[in-house]
Design brief:
The complex is a heterodimer of chains A (280) and B (688). By secondary structure, chain A is an alpha+beta fold. Chain A has helices at 3-16, 36-39, 88-98, 161-169, 185-203, 206-225, 229-248, 254-279, and strands spanning 20-21, 48-57, 73-82, 108-112, 116-117, 122-131, 134-145, 148-149, 155-160, 178-180, 183-184. In chain A, helix 6 (206-225) packs antiparallel against helix 7 (229-248) and helix 7 (229-248) runs antiparallel to helix 8 (254-279). Chain B has 688 residues and is α+β, with helices and mostly antiparallel strands. Chain B is 50% helix and 14% strand. Chain B has 26 helices and 18 strands. In chain B, the strands form 5 sheets. In chain B, strands 1, 2, 3, 7, 8, 9 and 10 form a 7-stranded mixed beta sheet that branches. In chain B, strands 13-15-16-14 form a 4-stranded antiparallel beta sheet, with helices on both faces. The longest helix of chain B is centred in the middle third of the chain and has 27 residues, at 310-336. Classes of the chains: A alpha+beta (280), B alpha+beta (688). At the A-B interface, helix 3, strand 4, strand 6, strand 7 and helix 8 of A face strand 16 and helix 9 of B.
Chain lengths: 280, 688
């Protein structure tokens, strides 16, 4: 099964379970969780089901296209079920079956892995789901977001699309996967991985990143004051990405790291408060 | 007699939580059954990652009968002089819904009272269970708890069902929006996860087994062990044992099967420690060795699957292992390119503790402390220690250690080894975090002991300087563990150091200390003495009276103080020595609290006192010599020879005579004898 069949099958499966299939969010994010479709929607009392594909950037994971399964941009398939249904695990297992995986011939295991995002003030309890030792999904019962206790609890399922592709095709190297329509992952992504690795590790200008960080902070402060929490959140995402780039450039000491994480977390907290007031 | 079983069906529990859950479930069940007067023969808790099970065998069908006594007014108040019940008695009876004739006289330690003896109602066990089970489940707590539905109930992972059977009957209750039932589920994949109805308790385990669930941990373990053995024999290899991993795997599967696969020899160039942690921590796999004991490119794993799935599982794991080792290789090779001196400089930005500076500062302090410890060593060794200290913390900045904190120290050591550094240097860094706890071994190399001690002393003393404290059961900074491991390191590492001089050296490395140095020294020594007592009592089986005896004469050099305690503990078993202690107590009784007198040999009068002095003079030097050589056992043996002379002395010589000069001279001689004994311990403290 090629990449596009994987996300189309998942979309079809979750559509039938009542999810709204959201468009990809048009910002640089580290994970599907950071999309407003997750971080805002898990807050508040309203039931909600969504699924979407989200490209996710982790600059330090760049390997210039040399590593068979580490990339600085990968694709997540994100599902939010709010409230978490009683048959959560079974729904997930059925989605694997929909992908044509015969679980009786494989070793599926749920291994303890509690997810936490310090910048989002969010955490949850759950597992990494392993198929024959390959982590294919992160399965989390969301407990807090923006420092707020969640009620009701949402279930977050995050599939790693490339991982599923490797598993389904029995391949070792993600660049050997087929995306669809006769296009390979290599065709689409190899040059991008090479060039962005060079940017992340060597060319990104530390000085201008630091300056941009400050400029964007001003922007957020103003937006928060004007209660424009949606654009404010976009700028918080930008800060988070700049932080990741500075990290890849090894330009952040441990003490600074803590400080920056705290800074972003505090903005997100304010933003979340504004959102909650707004939906009251 | 009946049987009761409760199964809490849950989503996959972490192995450590399963253990904790079962322990709590057992003790709380026992407690509640006893409290509610329900008798039972045996209670046990068993389970898998998906089920916590309590089984109660031989449980009675109803509560044990019990009489309740309700006391009323005293007999004197209850009856008047004619023996007629008073208003008080009538009122009491009425308040309990009884006639005054039903009152009985009850003897109590405080005298006679009127009262009622009422047979408590005997409720059926099932009724009691209905009530207590939700409370028991509610009381269980885990290191990390979560919510999953609108009830807001907390547990390790979501609860998805209850099976609650008393013989054939369902014991109804409701908790977390779930009702108790007679249904459970089999293996999630192999049994299609459909519900199974259990008709009676005795069928429970059997039904699970036919649905691919091995309920008992010991059964799962023996399956895994025999499967691993089969692989070892077939391939003529030996698994690299790892009990911790095995223990975890047993609780991660309901239907275990072992499998094995290979990886390319090219990865064996990566240090063993790295291969092991990547495959163990990331993939939960065992490594293996050939008959020569060499590591080979073969792993062994345990899956929760059927035999038929094995070939697919192996193929999958072989791919995953290759990718993982590729990653390990990348980390290792990349970190090797790092300039250690540059990393050392980067420590300036890496905070150790807000008030105690960065790791760079800490490294400099450790260097000065280590220098003090080895000030009498050869220059060459000093240079090596200096180097080891300098690079001891740099590995914390590498990607490898950030990813696997358990590798700190180990990685630093490996980088230095790869750089061609001497064993004295790299192994010191490699072993610096030993002992992790009191069960762990200490560094094997002397330089490692020095580095480990310098690191710990710096942290502990730093903590005291900034006012961190241990009180009661609160010890947020792990100071006790730090102190304990320092004691262990000094004793087992045979490190003959004066605590106070190291303390002073350490203190001098700080400016702006707010507290008085004397107070700090007292706090530090007092703390260390407590850790010393703890360690000796719990890990060396030394009696508290022996510790009292030794510590009464001072606490300054942990290694020597331990040697003294150890020798006294040993000699204490010797009958002659016990007699000597009794004799010594007589000496101590006289000299205790007395001012110091000058001794004049000419002043000796009686035969027995001259004899005692002669023998004392003969052994004194010998004892001091043995003490100096740290040969305390020998010194004690020599002291034993004094016993008959001391006894003879007290049998015929009167110390507290009228003649002031004679008395003081006699006391002076006993003072000299006593002070010789106290080179080892104050034996007066020993209980004989």
């Amino acid at each position: 099964m090629n990449i596009q069949d994987i996300f189309l099958t998942l979309s079809d499966y979750w559509k039938k379970k009542g999810c709204y299939i959201a468009p990809t969010y048009d910002m640089e994010v580290g994970a599907g969780t950071m999309s407003p479709d997750t971080i805002f929607r898990v807050l508040g009392p309203k039931p909600y089901r969504v699924a979407y594909m989200q490209p996710s950037r982790r600059p330090t994971d760049g390997r210039y296209g040399d590593n068979p399964n580490r990339v600085q941009k990968h694709f997540q398939y994100q599902v939010i079920l709010k409230p978490a249904p009683e048959n959560s695990q079974q729904l997930y297992i059925d989605s694997l079956k929909a992908l044509g995986i015969d679980l009786k011939k494989n070793f599926l295991s749920f291994e303890e892995d509690n997810w936490e995002s310090p910048t989002l003030g969010a955490w949850g309890v759950g597992w990494q789901v392993m198929l024959n030792g390959l982590e294919v999904t992160q399965f989390t019962y969301f407990q807090q977001a923006g420092g707020i206790d969640l009620y009701p609890i949402s279930l977050e399922i995050t599939y790693g699309i490339e991982r599923l592709g490797l598993f389904l095709e029995g391949k070792d190297n993600i660049y050997d996967l087929e995306w669809g329509g006769g296009i390979s992952y290599r065709d689409l992504r190899y040059k991008e991985e090479y060039q962005f690795s060079a940017f992340n590790f060597k060319e990104a200008n530390i000085n201008s990143l630091q300056k941009t960080f400050e400029l964007y902070e001003d922007e957020i402060k103003n937006l928060i004051e004007k209660k424009l929490y949606l654009p404010a959140y976009d700028y918080a995402l930008k800060l988070s990405h700049i932080f990741n780039l500075l990290d890849a450039r090894r330009a952040i000491s441990i003490t600074q790291r803590q400080k920056i994480i705290l800074t972003i977390r505090n903005y997100v907290k304010d933003i979340v408060q504004l959102y909650l007031e707004d939906i009251k | 007699m009946s049987e009761y079983i409760l199964e809490i069906l849950v989503e996959d529990l972490p192995p450590s939580h399963l253990k904790i859950g079962l322990e709590q479930l057992k003790s709380k069940f026992e407690e509640e059954l006893e409290k509610n007067r329900i008798e039972f023969e045996k209670i046990e808790t068993i389970g898998t990652k998906r089920r916590l099970v309590v089984s109660v065998k031989g449980i009675s069908e109803s509560q044990k009968s019990e009489e309740e006594v309700i006391l009323g007014p005293s007999k004197k108040i209850a009856y008047d002089e004619n023996g007629e019940p008073t208003k008080a008695a009538i009122g009491f009876a009425r308040s309990k819904g009884k006639d005054v004739e039903e009152l009985e006289i009850i003897e109590t330690p405080k005298g006679e009272y009127v009262g009622l003896k009422i047979l408590k109602e005997k409720k059926e066990t099932i009724e009691i269970l209905k009530k207590i089970i939700p409370e028991i489940i509610d009381s269980i707590s885990f290191p990390k708890n979560m919510k999953w539905n609108e009830t807001g109930v907390l547990f390790s992972r979501p609860i998805r069902g209850f099976l609650s059977l008393f013989d054939k009957k369902i014991v109804n209750f409701e908790y977390a929006n779930l009702e108790a039932s007679n249904r459970t589920r089999g293996h999630r994949i192999l049994a299609d996860d459909e519900e199974i109805t259990i008709s009676k308790v005795s069928k429970y385990e059997e039904s699970l087994k036919s649905n691919h669930v091995i309920l008992r941990k010991e059964d799962r373990l023996s399956i895994i062990q025999s499967e691993i053995k089969k692989i070892e024999e077939e391939l003529d290899i030996k698994i690299v044992e790892n009990e911790e991993l095995l223990d975890e795997l047993v609780d991660m599967v309901e239907y275990p099967v072992a499998f094995t696969g290979t990886f390319s020899d090219e990865y064996l160039k990566i240090p063993f420690e790295i291969i092991e942690i990547f495959l163990k921590q990331e993939k939960r796999l065992f490594l293996s060795r050939n008959q020569l004991g060499e590591l080979i490119g073969r792993f062994i794993g345990v899956a929760d699957a059927s035999e038929d799935a094995k070939p697919y599982i192996v193929k999958g794991f072989e791919r995953v292992v290759r990718a993982t080792l590729e990653d390990a290789k990348f980390f290792w090779e990349n970190d090797l390119k790092l300039d250690l001196d540059q990393l050392f400089d980067e420590l300036k930005g890496y905070s150790f503790e807000k008030k105690l500076g960065t790791y760079y500062d800490k490294t400099l302090r450790m260097e000065a402390l280590a220098e003090e410890m080895i000030k009498d060593s050869e220059d060459d060794f000093k240079e090596k220690i200096k180097k080891a200290v300098k690079y001891s913390k740099v590995d914390q900045l590498t990607e490898m250690v950030k990813e696997f904190p358990a590798l700190q120290g180990i990685m630093g050591g490996l980088y230095l080894k790869e750089r061609g550094e001497d064993e004295v240097v790299w192994k010191a860094v490699y072993e610096q975090y030993k002992p992790q706890n009191l069960e762990d071994s200490i560094p094997s190399i002397y330089s490692g002991k020095i580095l480990s001690l310098a690191d710990r002393l710096d942290s502990l003393i730093g903590a005291f300087i900034i006012g961190m404290e241990v009180s009661g059961d609160k010890d947020p900074f792990g100071l006790r563990r730090l102190g304990n491991t320092i004691v262990k390191l000094l004793i087992e590492g045979e490190l003959d150091f004066e605590l106070l001089s190291l303390f002073e050296k350490s203190l001098n490395l700080y400016d702006n200390i707010e507290k008085s140095k004397e107070d700090l020294a007292a706090t530090f020594l007092d703390f260390m003495e407590q850790r010393f007592r703890f360690y000796c009592t719990n890990f060396k089986n030394i009696d508290y009276d022996v510790l009292n005896a030794v510590l009464k004469t001072g606490f300054s050099n942990v290694y020597l103080d331990f040697q003294r305690a150890f020798s006294v503990q040993k000699t204490k078993q010797n009958e002659n020595f016990r007699k000597l202690i009794i004799s010594y107590k007589r000496v101590k009784n006289i000299v205790k609290g007395k001012e110091k007198f000058y001794f004049n040999e000419e002043g000796l009068v009686e035969k027995e006192e001259k004899a005692l002095y002669d023998i004392f003079k003969a052994v004194e030097e010998e004892v001091l010599e043995e003490v100096k050589r740290r040969n305390f056992l020998k010194a004690e043996e020599i002291l034993i020879t004094l016993r008959p002379f001391i006894d003879a002395y007290f049998d015929s010589v009167m110390v507290m005579v009228e003649d002031e000069e004679l008395k003081n001279n006699r006391i002076a001689m006993l003072q000299r004898i006593s002070s010789l004994f106290e080179k080892i311990a104050d034996f007066n403290e020993i209980i004989v």
